[in-house]
């Protein structure tokens, strides 16, 4: 184990030439980032998760009820043992051949079976109330941490001159503000990572899991090798747009469509300008070129910049999805009635829709009724539908 730790913390990887870990030990005159400082983030992440539960229950939920957001989730599918077995053991999205087989087996028409599977899938989605509470929690945190970051950074020299991120590097003392900023951001993303396994699993589970892991890795990496100054710039830049998208989601769930459209437009402008403009010109310029000129490259420098470049590629992809969503609405001439958070499945990222899967029945849709009075003649299944199909899910 000692050999593995010595290999992992190799000074020639983490630190510039002629710098050792002993040089960065805390003294009476100066305090430097220490890897063990980050251990505090784990219990703090649990505390943040508990605060989230209290916040959603006693603050966000009453706000949602005041906005007439209903607590009930999507309509539940009628219990049916055969379809439930297919859903849980085989597929949640049966193809046409399987649908036809189930139709013959249950003596239901295909349209009714399709509707059952839609309703059953919707049962596993969080209700609009739960989504609103989650977005309100994130909005509150992002607003607080972004406000804190701006108030802290406007007093620092590296906000106005990014070369200050590298002067006297890595012998830059750790201030209380930087330590608090880093630990709080890291704890929040750890809490999001943990909560993914307790919340209702969503379609973007893997994408968001990888996003949280990448964010946690960048925060940890920049803290350990004392790139904390530029790290604070990266965190503050990213928190700005997150405030607006969560606000837009809240407006969407509350059915305030005009406000939702306005907030999303502001989000799109801020996201694209900050992630495709400010990020490469301000952040990548200083990490790639100014740091090369002042400090020079070393192994962890290459890794850190590679991670930041990969982040830029993600920015480009997400910006493409945003622009694609806007262009589709304009091309269809539906800007006035456009819901920017209700996008196609192919375009889904962190942008969510408040509505569930919807597929209204075709006009004059006919349904088989063999007069069996609710009993399947072959299997005795209690679940045959007589009369109208399931109502649309909203």
Automatic annotation (TrEMBL):
Main location, first listed in the record: endoplasmic reticulum
Domain Homeobox: 83-127
SMART domains membership: TLC (SM00724)
Record key words, sorted: DNA-binding, Endoplasmic reticulum, Homeobox, Lipid biosynthesis, Lipid metabolism, Membrane, Nucleus, Transferase, Transmembrane, Transmembrane helix
Residue intervals of the TLC domain: 130-331
Subcellular locations according to the entry: Endoplasmic reticulum membrane; Nucleus
Region feature Disordered, mapped onto this chain: 346-394
Pathway where this protein functions: Sphingolipid metabolism; Lipid metabolism; sphingolipid metabolism
Pfam families in alphabetical order: Homeodomain, TRAM_LAG1_CLN8
Protein name: Ceramide synthase 6
